[in-house]
Amino acid sequence: MAAISCPTTSLCIAGDGDGDGNLAVSTDPTGGIGRWSKVSVSPCVVIDAVSWPTTTFCVAADEAGNVITSTDPTGGSGSWTVQSVDAPDEIISVSCPSATFCAAVDSLGRILLSTQPTGNIAAWSPIVAASTSAWPETGAASC
Would you identify the CATH topology of the domain 3-127? Predict the structure, then answer.
């Protein structure tokens, strides 16, 4: 697994990290492996990051620059929407304290911000450092 997020003690989601584009979702995360379901959301890519701030909003991000969102995170594959917001650059971290604000970091060290994270590429604004060496090791976001 590449990343995990749990909005409550009874809900967790994990990014697969193996290149299959799957998430693992559980409504009983301490109940053993059988209590986790595989959900295909972005085939053939690594899911690098997840953030599940509320029970009704979840975000994942992948190596192809996609943001994957759901307002029904336990609803199966059909409840997820994939939006290309940073292709071809990998989004390596995402953090959303609410359904109306997310911050992400890409593989070039850019910070991406959105007040409408379920939106398309126009809803995500990149912040580029004054020089490319200003934040060369940026690798995680937390809000």
Answer: Methylamine Dehydrogenase; Chain H (2.130.10)
